[in-house]
# Entry
Amino acid sequence: MATTEEKKQIILEHEAWFARNLSHRVIEKPNLSLWMILIPVFFVFFMLQHKRASESRKPFVENYLKARRRALDAAARQVQEDEEPDIK
# Structure
């Protein structure tokens, strides 16, 4: 049987995987068209937009995981200390 820390790590890894997949669906990446290949100036703008979309995924994932980490830490702490959950 896995320990509480191992279970916590498995859950966090799955949540991070889910957040990355969600970021790919939520953050739109630009589409490459024929004009961008034929006229290099348009390709430069495409690459800038693509870079901006790629860089915005990491903060999205980090912010998505903040609340989940806090909740998981609180749940793990309660399990380790054998406390009753504080549900209001």
Summary: The chain has one domain: 4-80. Residues 40-80 form the longest helix (41 residues).
